[in-house]
C-alpha cells in the first residue's frame, strides 16, 4: 500500500512538473497576414489540450471560438478582427512563452500613389530593420518636422503580466527613445537618426509629432546578450511641496524654484500630473518644472504643491556574459567622465579599480567584481553617515547609500563602464518614504543594468526591504524592486535664470540636480521648507 501511495505521489509530481514547463514558440505562419486569417504556431510545451491556456496577439486574447486546434506542439487559431500587429505569446499555467512577431498586412507601409496632402509623419524606410538596444537607426520619410520639438519615436514595450485572464484586453505599450541614452542624434523633415531605447521589444515602431502619428512599421530587436523582464507593477499616487516664508525683501525681486518630477524610463512609466497649486514658469524642462514667484513681500508665505501618479515595475535580468561586448559610442564618452560628484579620475579610485579588476575586459564581469568588492569591503549604513564624498567613503571604508552609489559609479567609470547614479525614494510596507540612491550600468546591445549596492548590503530598515528576496547581494546586482520612485537618472545640470541670481543647492535630496532655488533682485532673506515625498495611494497589480 505504501509503495503504491509513493508511486502515485511520484507520478503526480512528475505530471505537474511536465505541465509546468515554459511554452516555447519555434515558428509562426504566416508572419504577415490579414485579420480573420488562420495562423499556425509550432513549438513545444503548449499542453495536450487548451483548458485555461490561451494565446495573446499584441496584448489581445482571441475568444474561445477562435481556436481550431490545440496540441502540445501545434496551435491553429483565427486572428481576431480587433487584433493589431505585435508580439504573439502562448500562456500556459501562468507561464508565458517567448514572443514572435505577427504583422497586420493592413498596416504595412505601401508606396504612396498619387498626391498625399496629409500632414502626419510618414515612414518610408527604417535601416537597419533589426538590431539591439543602443544601435543607431536611420528613419527616412517625410513630414517629420524641421526639428524634434514636441515629437518623438516610440518602440514596442512589454511587461510580464501577473494576470493571465484571456478575456482581459490590453492596449499595446511603447517606450520612447531616451534623452538619457543620447537617443536622438539628428532630426529633420525627411530623416531621423535615433538609438534603439532600453526596454524595446520586437513589434511596432512609430513616430508622433504635433501634426499626428505615423502608420506603424515593424522592428525586430535582435542580438541581445541577455533578457530583461518588467514585472510586479505598482502604481503610486504621490504628493510633495515647498513652503516659502519671506523675511526681508524689496521690489523688484524674484524667487525661482526648480521642482523635480518622477523621471520616465523603461521601468518607470506613465508619469501623470494629477494636480498642482500653481502653473510653472517653464513646464517639464529636463524632468524639472520651474516655478517663478515675482515681487514677493516681507512677511508673506507661499506654497507650491504637486501631485503625480506614476507606474513602477520591478526589473529582472539574466545575462550571457560571454556574449557581452563593449563598444565606443557617445553614451560611453558621456557616462565615463569624471565629475565632482563622480570622481572617476581620482588616484585612489583608479588604483582601487586596477587592484579589483586586474586584466578583466568583459564589461559585465567587471561590473560584478566592483560590486562584490564594494559590498565586502565598505561598511554601508542605512542612515546618512559622516562621509564628505565618494573618495572619503572609499578611504574610510564606511558609507551611506548616497555615497555608496556615487562610489560605485566612480569605480565603474574608472573601469570604463558607462554608469549613472539614480536618486529617489524607497517606499515601505506602511507607505512611508526614505531617500535612496542606486546606479545603472550600460551594457552594449542590452541596455541599463540596475545595481543597488546599499540594498545589496541590506543597508535599509527591514520594512523597506523586499522580504521575498533572501539573497540580497545577488538580487540587487542586475535586478531591482518596484518599491521605489526615481526622480533623477544621472546628474541633472540646470542653468541659472539670472546672471546675478543667488543659488541654493541641496545635497542628499531625492534628485541629483545642481539648482533647487535661485533668488534675484531685492529678495534679501527668506526660508524654504521642502517636504518629503508623501504616498497618497498604492495599487499593486
Task: Describe the 3D structure.
The chain has 541 residues and is mainly β. The protein folds into 4 domains: 20-105, Immunoglobulins (Immunoglobulin-like), CATH 2.60.40.10; 116-223, Immunoglobulins (Immunoglobulin-like, Sandwich); 231-313 and 492-540; 319-488, C8orf32 fold. It contains 8 helices and 33 strands. Strands 20, 21, 22, 23, 24, 31, 32 and 33 form an 8-stranded antiparallel beta sheet that branches. Strands 11, 13, 14, 17, 18 and 19 form a 6-stranded mixed beta sheet that branches. Strand 15 (184-187) and strand 16 (191-195) form a beta hairpin. It is globular. The two termini are 46 Å apart. The relative contact order is 0.11.
Number of domains: 4
Profile the largest sheet. Answer: 8 strands, antiparallel
What structural class is derived from the secondary structure elements?
mainly beta
Total beta strands = 33
End-to-end C-alpha gap: 46 Å
For this structure, the CATH topology of the largest domain is: C8orf32 fold
The CATH class of the largest domain is identified as: Alpha Beta
Amino acid at each position: 500500500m505504501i509503495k503504491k501511495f509513493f508511486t502515485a505521489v511520484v507520478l503526480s509530481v512528475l505530471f505537474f512538473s511536465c505541465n509546468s514547463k515554459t511554452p516555447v514558440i519555434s515558428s509562426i505562419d504566416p508572419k504577415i497576414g490579414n485579420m480573420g486569417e488562420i495562423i499556425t504556431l509550432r513549438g513545444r510545451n503548449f499542453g495536450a489540450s487548451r483548458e485555461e491556456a490561451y494565446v495573446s496577439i499584441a496584448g489581445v486574447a482571441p475568444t474561445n471560438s477562435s481556436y481550431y486546434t490545440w496540441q502540445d506542439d501545434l496551435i491553429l487559431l483565427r486572428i481576431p478582427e480587433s487584433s493589431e500587429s505585435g508580439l504573439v505569446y502562448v500562456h500556459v499555467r501562468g507561464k508565458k512563452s517567448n514572443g514572435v512577431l505577427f504583422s497586420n498586412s493592413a498596416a504595412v507601409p505601401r508606396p504612396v500613389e498619387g498626391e498625399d496632402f496629409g500632414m502626419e509623419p510618414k515612414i518610408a524606410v527604417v535601416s537597419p530593420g533589426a538590431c539591439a538596444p543602443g544601435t543607431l537607426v536611420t528613419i527616412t520619410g517625410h513630414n517629420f518636422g524641421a526639428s524634434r520639438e514636441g515629437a518623438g519615436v516610440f518602440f514596442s514595450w512589454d511587461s510580464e503580466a501577473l494576470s493571465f485572464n484571456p478575456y482581459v484586453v490590453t492596449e499595446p505599450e511603447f517606450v520612447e527613445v531616451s534623452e538619457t541614452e543620447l537617443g536622438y542624434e539628428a532630426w529633420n523633415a525627411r530623416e531621423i537618426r535615433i538609438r534603439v531605447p532600453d526596454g524595446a521589444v520586437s513589434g511596432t515602431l512609430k513616430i508622433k509629432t504635433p501634426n499626428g502619428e505615423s502608420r506603424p512599421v515593424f522592428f525586430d530587436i535582435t542580438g541581445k546578450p541577455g533578457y530583461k523582464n518588467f514585472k510586479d507593477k505598482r502604481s503610486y499616487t504621490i504628493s510633495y511641496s515647498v513652503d516659502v516664508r519671506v523675511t526681508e525683501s524689496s521690489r523688484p525681486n524674484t524667487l525661482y524654484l526648480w521642482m523635480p518630477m518622477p523621471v520616465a524610463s523603461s521601468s518607470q512609466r506613465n508619469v501623470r500630473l494629477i494636480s498642482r497649486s500653481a502653473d510653472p514658469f517653464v513646464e517639464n524642462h529636463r524632468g524639472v518644472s520651474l516655478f517663478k514667484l515675482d515681487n514677493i513681500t516681507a512677511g508673506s508665505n507661499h506654497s507650491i504643491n504637486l501631485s503625480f501618479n506614476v507606474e513602477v515595475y520591478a526589473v529582472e535580468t539574466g545575462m550571457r556574459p560571454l556574449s557581452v561586448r563593449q563598444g565606443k559610442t557617445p553614451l560611453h564618452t558621456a557616462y565615463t567622465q569624471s565629475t565632482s560628484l563622480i570622481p572617476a579620475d581620482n588616484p585612489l579610485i583608479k588604483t582601487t579599480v586596477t587592484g579589483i579588476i586586474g586584466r578583466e575586459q568583459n564589461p559585465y564581469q567587471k561590473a560584478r567584481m566592483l560590486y562584490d568588492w564594494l559590498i565586502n569591503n565598505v561598511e554601508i549604513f542605512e542612515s546618512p553617515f559622516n562621509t564628505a564624498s565618494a573618495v572619503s567613503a572609499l578611504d574610510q571604508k564606511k558609507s551611506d547609500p548616497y555615497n555608496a552609489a556615487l562610489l560605485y559609479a566612480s569605480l565603474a567609470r574608472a573601469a570604463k563602464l558607462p554608469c549613472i547614479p539614480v536618486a529617489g525614494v524607497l517606499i515601505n510596507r506602511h507607505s512611508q518614504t526614505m531617500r535612496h540612491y542606486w546606479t545603472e550600468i550600460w551594457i552594449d546591445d542590452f541596455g541599463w543594468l540596475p545595481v543597488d549596492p546599499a540594498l545589496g548590503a541590506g543597508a535599509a530598515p527591514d520594512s523597506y526591504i523586499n522580504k521575498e528576496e533572501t539573497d540580497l547581494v545577488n538580487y540587487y546586482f542586475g535586478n531591482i524592486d518596484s518599491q521605489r520612485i526615481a526622480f533623477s537618472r544621472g546628474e541633472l545640470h540646470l542653468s541659472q535664470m539670472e546672471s546675478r541670481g543667488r543659488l541654493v543647492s541641496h545635497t542628499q535630496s531625492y534628485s541629483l540636480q545642481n539648482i533647487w532655488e535661485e533668488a534675484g533682485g531685492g529678495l534679501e532673506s527668506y526660508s524654504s521648507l521642502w517636504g518629503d515625498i508623501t504616498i497618497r495611494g498604492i495599487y499593486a497589480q
